[in-house]
Predict the structure.
Amino acid sequence: MTFPYRAALFDLDGTLIDSAGGIAEAVNRTLLDLGHAAQDEATVRAWIGDGARLLLRRALDHAGAILPDGDGFESAYALLMRHYGDSLPRQAVAYPGVEQALERLHGRGVRIALCTNKPARFIDPLLHALGWEARFEAIVGGDTLPERKPDARPLLHIAEGFGLSARECLMVGDSHTDAEAARAATMPLALVDYGYRRDFDLDSAGAWRVVGDLRELLAAAPAAC
């Protein structure tokens, strides 16, 4: 059976790439600069998935640091962003099967987009490191629009740009943020069972499909819901 959607919108971190090693490096350099202890990658991995600001808040809370909103937090965030940019080469690790899945979808005429909460200025260097410069027909980062996931607007913005309805598109992600955005947009959802889902229950998310490899999206499947 053919793939039942005309476009696929992919989350990035935890869905297409395993960026945790690089992100952990950036977080730990930030913590050390602020006088706190570094954390192991598994600990940092549990903080990833809702954007860089919440990532920093989780790291600071874990360290027992008290930085209220304002100049103190913004200075720490700027420090994280500097280290984050330096860590991009270590973030460029595609999960097995991702490149083949993207190529096969494209070969079937499916329009491919990237919909991530990663700050937009980091996306092009990362795609360059992966060799994916021409892979996506549309890209929305975490600060491309005033809204970000789990708001519906990033997903709807891409669908509208493609001239498609939300029901003709599939959001593919790994976390509750992706699921909530798809639900808000009334867009079908697929989830991967790896990534940075923390305690998110995949089976209760109402996904069209939960896969362990993105190539499974193209396997024979029931019609779109």
Notes: The first helix runs from residue 20 to 33. Residues 87 and 131 are 17 Å apart (CA to CA). Strands lie at 7-10, 111-115, 138-140, 169-173, 189-192, 209-211.
